[in-house]
Amino acid sequence: MTRDTQQDTEEVYIFLEENRHETDISTQYYQEKTYPRLSGPFPDQERACCFAPQTCKRAEEIKRLTFPPERRLRKRPQYLACYQRGRRYFLKRFIVYVLPRGKDGAGCRLGTAVSKKTGNAVERNRVKRLLREFFRLHHQSWCLDCDIVVVAKRSIVPGELTLQLVTDELTPLIKRLEREDTPARLTPCET
Questions:
Q1: Selection from 89, 97, 92, 98 nearest residue 169 by Cα
Q2: Burial label, 94 (beta-carbon count in 10 A; 0-12, 13-18, 19+)
Q3: CATH number of 69-179
Q4: Could you read off the pLDDT of 162-187 as tens digits, one per residue?
Q5: Phi, psi at 34, each rounded to 5°
């Protein structure tokens, strides 16, 4: 025990000896005890420089870098619609299903599918994280209203996959989708 702990323990024993008749001694003792190391408010309470997101100058920029739930495919019927009615594109490491939604202005929604044949959970999650990161960084610059499901092929090696490889493989496909005259194309691209 350290010297402070030993001293505190001795004080508790002395207090207990003096107040044997009390029923709730520990509460009474600790309410009376003051701690010199915590003399003032906690350091976090002194920070007055924190701003709410709406008052921050960079709030719009920060919002741009998020990947909100409305930009993701979350339900099985959404995935099935992409698989059954969407157009398939075969790339070196991925199969991409694209289903145009029409001009609803909601932008591109992403779904990922990585089978257990790709590797263990850590490796599968790495592939999904890289795909989400690619879409998070680039979805603002696309003029598409469509659902995209990216399926990782079995031959993919998750340990060797990097964000640069994902970008190099998916960027030409996205540019091709924007060039094609499909219902997924919006008239003006808002930047």
A1: 92
A2: buried
A3: 3.30.230.10
A4: 999 999 999 999 889 888 744 444 44
A5: -110, 150
